[in-house]
Each structure stands twice: as C-alpha cells, then as structure tokens.
Design goal:
single chain; Beta-Lactamase; 2 domains
C-alpha cells in the first residue's frame, strides 16, 4: 500500500529542490532535480530568499504546502534545510511519504554545523590583527554591531584589544 502511494506521488512529481541556509549568504540552492519535461514557469534560483521565507518565516505559522496556479509545492524542514517537492495535480496527502521519498531522491547531506558569527570573527582575528572597520568588511553588519560582538568576545576572554594603528589610532583586535 505504501509503495503504491509512493508511486502515485512519484508519477505526479515534477521536480525536487533542497534549499539550505548559510548564515552569511542566506538561502542557497544545494540540490535540484527535474523529472518532467514540462516547464513550471518558475525560476527558483532567482526567488530563493522569498521562497525560503514563505515556508520558514520567523513566525509560528509555517505552511507545509502552497498551491500555485500551475503547480503545488510540498515541503518539510530538517535543521535549516528546506526539502521541496514541486507537484502537478496532487491532492493533499501524508507528509511522511514525502520524507520517505526524499531519502531515496536527495543526496545524503553530511551533518554540518554552521559557524557562529563569533566563531568566524575569532577565526579571522587568529590570522591577523584588525580594526573594527576592517572586521566590518568581512560581515554585513554595522560598526556598532561588530563592536557588540567584539565586546562580548572580550568579556568571554577570547579576543583582546592589542593597541592602536599608527595612522588613525583605531583600536586593533586579536585573539588571546
């Protein structure tokens, strides 16, 4: 019975996509595969952020499926990855079946731990001494946000202010 349901879903499956989340870049397309020759007239790559947020917005309301004019999308989350099934003419069904199919279709993802902003800053400061403005160039943050992270890292004893630059008297930071 389960195999029959899985075959029914596979017959209506147009394509699949795996949208991951990178802490610096945002949503990224990690994998996609098309099973049907018909086009969906939808460019997922240019709409990754919007699409990711549709299914995994910051609030409590997170849809499992959204119907569009020509197709339906069914999703489920694993960690920060969004597994997407693009379907034609499919009635709402059991989402567990999609998880079983995903294990057969999607490549295995190694468990990856994204580095936190603090870890990335420490790694950067291990290489060289930098000012707040130089650190800011590596992150999409304001100067005050970079300072907050550095202050927190100083309090944790992981970085320290090691002096100032010759020209601008800006504070230099390094790891301890």
């Amino acid at each position: 019975m389960v195999k029959k349901k899985m075959n029914d879903i596979k017959n209506k499956l147009h394509s699949v996509a795996l949208i991951g989340f990178d802490t610096l870049s945002g949503p990224v397309l990690r994998f996609s595969k098309i099973f049907s020759k018909q086009s969906l007239d939808f460019d997922l790559e240019s709409n990754l952020t919007s699409f990711y947020l549709m299914f995994n917005g910051g609030g409590q309301f997170k849809p499992r499926e959204i119907g569009f004019d020509q197709f339906k999308v069914v999703t489920f989350m694993k960690e920060l990855d969004l597994y997407c099934f693009f379907l034609r003419n499919l009635e709402s069904g059991n989402y567990k079946e999609f998880e079983e199919i995903a294990e057969n279709i999607f490549p295995k993802q190694e468990s990856r731990k994204e580095k936190t902003i603090k870890e990335q800053m420490i790694e950067l400061l291990e290489e060289q001494k930098l000012t707040v403005k130089q650190i800011k160039k590596h992150f999409n943050f304001s100067v005050s946000t970079v300072r907050k992270y550095l202050k927190s890292l100083e309090e944790e004893g992981k970085v320290e202010c090691v002096g100032t630059t010759d020209k601008t008297n800006a504070y230099l930071y390094s790891t301890k």
